């Protein structure tokens, strides 16, 4: 394979119901850094139907250009159609890097695309960089059950591909001056009935109140040390006082104390709140991978040698059943004084 033929960084711009997903904007933010280091263009690839306005948004968030493929069969995600369109584009234009969000859609699409392009895929990345002397992409992800962080490179094949967890990177500030329609390359898909072996006839949506902890400014998270679902009420009271949301480690979810949607960590969500209060969480690498970029971390734990203490900005050593209610009382007292 002649690696020199491949140039440029691509971001798959996932859309649902015609709306760009936040992870695509986050990938553009980091893709901008990678593209600048390589001195190449950053391209967003958008598949959908009648969503030209969303293509302009991608330019405003950092893309140098957008390839927009319009077809009514692309309005909703389908493995077969999306894989064919992206692979046809990649074979034609030969990007050196493709980033895909590690969402339900991305985790289905990424392996299919990489297999068809005969290249590798590093899944669930939490870090990306460039090896300056070779130009290879450095893809970092948890390995061996999350017990260590592995950096993987793809030296012999192109494009280099990775799926990246939502919430890992920051999106750039929107710059409306970048919204130049001449930077949008519009394509029309050529999908035959033979290639559309599966068709979505109907989408039935179930309404469920779900809290997105990746958007929370304040999180109060509990782990095995909380002890029971009843004790999570103390964490909820502190979260309410702080104007935040309750979350938990895998141990708390496995014990059925809180819903899986509230899990932070390698098998949960990556979060970056302004304040993260870790209660009864030891700080296994799987959990740290999901919250270590929080602005200010407060750890409450009986063990002053727990790994969580090494990443905490403030460590409180003691019984969380005494410390958390005291914190809640002090927060409420301060708020009353401010509002008085």
**Percent strand:** 15-25%
Count of alpha/pi helices: 9
Instruction: Report low-confidence residues grouped into runs of 5 or more.
Output: none
What class would the helix/strand composition place it in?
alpha/beta
Main sheet record: 7 strands, parallel
CATH architecture of the largest domain, please?
3-Layer(aba) Sandwich
Report the CATH superfamily of the largest domain.
HUPs
First-residue to last-residue Cα separation: 71 Å
The CATH class assignment of the largest domain is Alpha Beta
- Count of the domains: 2
Please provide the ordered H/E string of secondary-structure elements: EEEHEHEHEHEEEEEEEHEHEHEHEH
**What is the overall silhouette?**
elongated
pLDDT averaged over residues: 90
User: Which fold name corresponds to the CATH topology of the largest domain?
Assistant: Rossmann fold
Give helix % range. 25-40%
Description:
- This protein folds into 2 domains: 3-188, Rossmann fold, CATH 3.40.50.620; 213-339, TPP-binding domain (Rossmann fold, 3-Layer(aba) Sandwich).
- Helices cover 30% and strands 24% of the residues.
- The protein contains 9 helices and 17 strands.
- Strands 7-11-6-1-4-5-12 form a 7-stranded parallel beta sheet, with helices on both faces. A 5-stranded parallel beta sheet has the order 14-13-15-16-17. The protein has a 3-stranded antiparallel beta sheet with strand order 8-9-10.
- Helix 3 crosses helix 4 and helix 5 (232-242) runs parallel beside helix 9 (320-339).
- The longest helix has 20 residues, at 320-339.
- The radius of gyration is 22 Å and the shape is elongated.
